[in-house]
Amino acid sequence: MDIVGVGYNCIDRLCTVEEYPPEDSSTHITSINIQGGGATATALVCASRLGKKTCLVGNVGKDGVSDEIIGLLEEDGVDCSKLIRRNDGFGLQSFVMVNPANGSRTKFPQRDTNPDIEWTGELKKAIKDAKILHLDGTNHANAMEAAKTAKEWGTLVSLDGASLKEPNEINLELARLADILIMNWRYPVRVTGIKDYDEALLEIASWGTARIVIGTIGSKGCKAVIDGHIEYFPAYPVDVVDTTGAGDVFHGAFLAGYLDGMELRENIRFASAVAALKCTKVGGRAGIPKKKEALEFMERMDREMFRH
CA dist 132 to 44, 163, 238, Å? Predict the structure, then answer.
């Protein structure tokens, strides 16, 4: 496999509402859209659509929701042979309320109380044989064991820096095992205790453990530490319908570009382009493009932005 993932995996039930209501009030749902979701799972789907061989490791149940989850992953070519169906497991669901006024989404994910992964030799071998292990840290025990296995065998570790678990030391422990560390806007400040975002990114880069350090900042784009300095990459402008899963898609696209040998700056723009296109459709997966479409969009937008 090119990429093996360990992390959150669910069904997203996306409800577009007339307007997002204040607490203890109501609004009408105008549409319901069902797609696969979860940070790591969606990143793998994205990489798969971009031509990479991907596999998800984890526990699910023998229930109907687990059937939905596996079916949707397999439709996108994600290998589910390492998803263990357990009698004491269950399929996770996430309910997402989408505000059509600005494309923002409010998520209500189900807490993952599935048993921890029992790391058999077969599951560890899947990590050993992969080029990249991608984690989201949702289940710290699973992520740590996977990361340690990857380090033992020289498999590159990619971490979606988003988990803000207590105590903060466990976040630091996992972050220091990452070779590729791409984080949301909260994570660097929380993990380092440094309030200035740029300074927090530079501090993480100074650890010397991650070869790539990137912080995403939503619709504003992202920042990366390159040659000891912060470089800013604006987001590509699109008509946003829904931002659900944009960060997850950025991760999957970046890993696909990395495996294709893209130069770092080009790869950041590529991942930004893929994430932007995703935002033009409802849900975390419906808008994920194929590689050719993403490259054409990126080239067209780069020409227009440069001209201005």
Answer: 11, 20, 30
Tokens of 301: 């937008």
| CATH number, domain 3-8+38-91+116-307, options 3.40.50.10540, 3.40.1190.20, 3.40.50.300, 1.10.3720.10 | 3.40.1190.20
Contact yes or no for 288/49 (Cβ under 8 A): yes
For residues 69 and 96, the answer to whether their CB atoms sit within 8 Å is no
**pLDDT at residue 284 greater than cutoff 70:** yes
307 pLDDT exceeds 60? no
Question: What DSSP line would sit under 17-84, residue for residue?
Answer: ESSPPPTT----EEEEEEEEE-HHHHHHHHHHHTT--EEEEEEE-SSHHHHHHHHHHHHTT-B-TTEE
Q: What is the total residue count of the chain?
A: 308
pLDDT of 11 over the 70 cut? yes
Report how far Cα 120 is from the mean position of its chain's Cα atoms.
Answer: 25
Query: 156: pLDDT confidence band, cut at 50, 70 and 90?
Result: very high
Q: Which residues pair with 233 in a beta bridge?
A: 222
Measure the N-to-C terminal CA separation of the chain; round to a whole number of Å. 42
Average pLDDT, the chain: 94
In degrees, rounded to 5, the angle at the alpha carbon of residue 285 between the alpha carbons of residues 40 and 149 is: 15
Q: Is 268 exposed, middle or buried (CB count within 10 Å of its CB: 0-12, 13-18, 19+)? A: buried
- CA 283 to CA 27: how far, in whole Å? 20
Query: How confident is the model over 42-85, as pLDDT tens digits?
Result: 999 999 999 999 999 999 999 999 999 999 999 999 999 999 99
Beta carbons within 10 angstroms of residue 196's beta carbon: 12
Token pair, residue 29, equals 């749902």
